Structures are given as C-alpha cells and as structure tokens.
Amino acid sequence: MPFPETIGFIGTGTITDAMVRGLLVEPAAGPQIIVSQRGADISAKLASEFPRVRVSADNQAIVDGCDTVVLAIRPQVAEDVVRPLKFRDGQKVISVIAATDRPTLLAWIGPGVHLTQAIPLPFVARRKGVTAVFPADAETAAIFDVLGNAVECETKAEYDLLAAASALMATYFGIMHRTTEWLAQNGLPEEKGRAYLAPLFAGLSEAALLAGPKVDFVEMSREFATKGGLNEQVFRDFDKTGGTDALTRALDRVLERINR
After folding, report:
1. For residues 146 and 22, what is the distance between their CA atoms, to the nearest angstrom?
2. CATH assignment at residue 223
3. Helices and strands (DSSP H and E) totals, the chain
4. E strand or H helix at 129
5. Domain boundary among 103, 131, 154
6. Which terminus of the chain is more solvent-facing, meaning fewer CB atoms within 10 Å of its CB: N or C?
7. Residues 129 and 61 in one domain
8. What tens digit of pLDDT does each residue of 149-205 get?
9. Which residues neighbour 154 within 8 Å (Cβ) at sequence distance 6 or greater?
C-alpha cells in the first residue's frame, strides 16, 4: 500500500505530537509533514527535532500542500476551523476529532473528500498504539500500522463501541493508584508500590497480547486465579459487591454520550 508523501496536521496538540513522533522516529516512515502553528510550543519543538517537519501559519496552505490531511482539533472549535477550508475532490482526510460524527464532518468539509475517522492514543508516539479506524480503509490503516496497529471497523457501531472501551484508560490507572494508596496505608512506601504494580500490570497485558487475537479473557482469568486462591477471591468480591455492574453501567453511559 503506497504511503502518503506529505501529511498535514491541522491542530497541533498532544495527539498530533504523538503521531508525528511515531511517524518520524528512526527508522522514519518517510513522509514530509506540515503542522499548523496552532499549538505553537509543540509545533516549534517538532520542527526543531525533525528536519522533515515544517510549520505553517496558514491552514489552507496545509490542505493545498498535502496528500493526506489529519484534522486534530478540539471539538469545541472544530467547525469554525474546518468550515472555511477548501479541500480537493478525492483528497484523503483523517479526522481524529472527538465526539464528532461522520455526517457532521462531511457537512463541514464537503462530500467529495475521502474521509476516515480514527481514535489514536498517546502510545502511537512509541509505535505501540492500537487505533480504531472507520470506515475500513487500507491507506489509513497503513499509517496507523506504522504507529502500532490498526483495527478497521466495518460499521459505525463497531467504531463507537471501541471508542467507548478506550474510555477505560483513566480507570486502569485509577485502579493502580487506589492499590498504591492501600499499600501505603498498610505500611509500604508509595514508590515501592508503584515500582511493583507497573510491571505487574504490564506483564498481564503482555500475556494477553502473546495469547493472540482469539484470546479468551475468561480463560485467562481462570489461568491467573488458582481455585480457592487469592486472585479468585478478589475477583469474586469485586463482582459480588457491584464492581462488574458498575463497569458495565459506566460503559453504557459512555456509549450513550457518543451516540448523542
């Protein structure tokens, strides 16, 4: 699949920073990149670190000068930024704007573009990100496969479900934080708790990855829970005291918000 020669980013925040770093870390994926001046500190730093990065104060010049344009703008200001821009028929546009559906984007951009949506996470900076892409699109997937791996969604429902699941990141770290607090309350210094928990959780994630895409998480839970043992006890307590129900309700509420 041919890789775009030029990629432009309109909006230069955390996700643009992560994507550009992931694309240009050695061995670089190859594209010339133009970033908007909005987010001046980040754009200036990227340009100083990577010779392939150029900064433009003119968003229309980015659209005109790039094969692929990534829209990475906060949803609160996205319409004001995007509507005045003139895109070419068939131009590749990737939106990473949160909580903004495809019909709305096309109303702003125009129907003639080749539009995909994606949910990149900060880990793409280390080429470790998993990114949901909708609709399924080989060219967009090729970009995010460089940055980790892409999951191409056949339907909007699939894409929205993965978007909801990605909202678990803060909860993941929240569990680690609460456990560190509990350890400290019982006499273990916080730095030792963090030093233990981070690789413990990383090891569990690695085990799931090594098990492959057909991994059965129920079976893995049983594998890591000796019958009558401590892991089994904690999961049963979590489930019986409402933890599973609370998690399901939270995901349901996130999905409702996405679908508004």
Report:
1. 8
2. 1.10.3730
3. 12, 8
4. strand 129-134
5. 154
6. C
7. yes
8. 999 999 999 999 999 999 999 999 999 999 999 999 999 999 999 999 999 999 999
9. 135, 136
Whether 56 and 99 share a structural domain: yes
Q: What are phi and psi of 245, to 5 degrees?
A: -65, -40
Residues 56 and 24: their CA atoms lie apart, in Å, by 18
- Which residues form the domain of 226? 167-258
Same domain, 121 and 245: no
Strand, helix or coil for residue 243: helix
Q: Is residue 160 part of a domain?
A: no
Pair 71, 46 in one domain: yes
pLDDT at site 260: 83
**Tokens standing for residue 131:** 């990114």
> Distances in Å between the alpha carbon of 189 and those of 37, 172, 193, 194, 196?
44, 21, 7, 9, 11
The reply to whether 115 and 14 lie within a common domain is: yes
**Terminal CA-to-CA distance of the chain, rounded, Å?**
35
Distance (Å) of CA 25 to CA 131, 134, 141: 18, 26, 19
User: Is the domain of 101 the same as that of 40?
Assistant: yes
Per-residue model confidence as pLDDT tens digits over 14-41? 999 999 999 999 999 878 999 999 888 9
Of 115, 130, 154, the position where a domain reaches its end is 154
pLDDT bracket for residue 117 (50, 70, 90): very high
